[in-house]
Amino acid sequence: MDAHEFYKYSKACNEKKITIYPKCSNTGKYKIIINRNGNEKEGEEIYENRPYIKEIEIQTPRGIQKVKKVIPSVWDKILELYKATCIKNNLI
């Protein structure tokens, strides 16, 4: 994660009262909260401090298959969400 990039995107979002932050637990796992003018939305995915691999099942034409999915670290995901929010709302 690049600190300059994080600052650029988070500053633009914070000026529009959009904040993205982790919701901590005692186990070192996080969910991400997106706050828009006081309206909080909690994500479903669970993140950790480091990226990890999660095995999920998907439906394909040949039946159910197990696929490995890389889950990014919580801080990389927050940066990704700030960046996507800025691009979607033309903040930069």
Fold and architecture overview:
With 92 residues, the protein is α+β, with helices and mostly antiparallel strands. The protein has one domain (3-88). 30% of the residues lie in helices and 39% in strands. The chain contains 2 helices and 5 strands. The strands form 2 sheets. A 3-stranded antiparallel sheet has the order 1-2-3. Helix 1 crosses helix 2. It is globular, with a radius of gyration of 16 Å. It starts with a helix and ends with a helix.
Summary tags:
92 residues; alpha+beta; 3-stranded antiparallel beta sheet; two-stranded antiparallel ribbon; 2 helices; 30% helix
Strand content: 35-45%
Helix/strand-derived category reads alpha+beta
Major pleated sheet: 3 strands, antiparallel
**Distance, first to last CA:** 19 Å
Q: Strand sequence of the main sheet, in spatial order? A: 1-2-3
Number of domains: 1
Q: Indicate the percent of residues in helices.
A: 25-40%
Shape: globular
Instruction: Report the order of strands and helices.
Output: HEEEEEH
Mean pLDDT, all residues: 92
- The DSSP helix count reads 2
Number of strands: 5
Rg on CA atoms, Å:
16 Å
Low confidence ranges: none
Helix/strand layout:
Elements: H1 3-15, E1 18-24, E2 30-36, E3 39-42, E4 52-60, E5 63-71, H2 74-88
Antiparallel strand pairs: 1-2, 2-3, 4-5
Helix pairs in contact: 1-2
